[in-house]
């Protein structure tokens, strides 16, 4: 069973990532009447921005609680958007039913990248486009994630597996999408992440982020949480760009797959 993204309070991370959603929707050049599907929509960041532009928008996510949050946000914003349960390998949208498919740091968690790419391609109409974002695996935040992932893997006795699919690399993406008739372009971008301190940032992530919550209980039960957290904190403090608070810059890519 995969991670339950409805656990905790993903809203915190969604707010942190909202500038990325805005940048991607702008780059997608979405206009009134476009049919837009947001895969892994979470609390609706990109879907709501697309709907505000007059698009016929459908947000898809496996987490029922996050879909309810997205519906509430749509009602509060006075925009019309549909939110349905599904995942990247099973998108509840008709074949060729989307002019634009978006996925903001979502499809990168798909357990089967090939199946996810095939499904995104299926719902994209001729002349349509897919825009997705992926982290570049470097920098303080990614290093922290790695520290916790390795600790959890060791705690459950899971052997080191193959590296994750390189969603940030043009050649890797081309291997997924070219067989479906797409050309792929990748552009690097940056997201600045801030908090009052590195310690506060780490505490918020531990309290709110579904991935952190899932691993924290296990590490605490083994008496390892404090040590692992200390190593992560040291990484964040060493990379801090703001001596009076906390700021780090995380690099990511926006990939655009265009169907002929």
Protein topology:
Layout: H1 11-27, E1 35-39, H2 45-52, E2 56-61, H3 64-77, E3 82-85, E4 98-104, H4 113-123, E5 124-135, H5 140-155, H6 170-177, E6 182-195, H7 198-208, H8 210-221, H9 225-239, E7 246-259
Parallel strand pairs: 1-2, 1-4, 2-3, 4-5
Antiparallel strand pairs: 5-7, 6-7
Helix pairs in contact: 1-2, 5-8, 5-9, 7-8
Summarize the structure.
The protein is an alpha/beta fold. It has one domain: Rossmann fold (3-Layer(aba) Sandwich), CATH 3.40.50.150.
Task: Tell me what you see in this structure.
The protein is of the alpha/beta class. It has a single domain, classed as Rossmann fold (3-Layer(aba) Sandwich), CATH 3.40.50. It has helices at residues 11-27, 45-52, 64-77, 113-123, 140-155, 170-177, 198-208, 210-221, 225-239; strands spanning 35-39, 56-61, 82-85, 98-104, 124-135, 182-195, 246-259. It has a seven-stranded mixed beta sheet with strand order 3-2-1-4-5-7-6, with helices on both faces. Helix 1 packs across helix 2, helix 5 (140-155) packs across helix 8 and helix 5 packs antiparallel against helix 9 (225-239). The longest helix is centred in the first third of the chain and has 17 residues, at 11-27. It is globular and about 55 Å long.
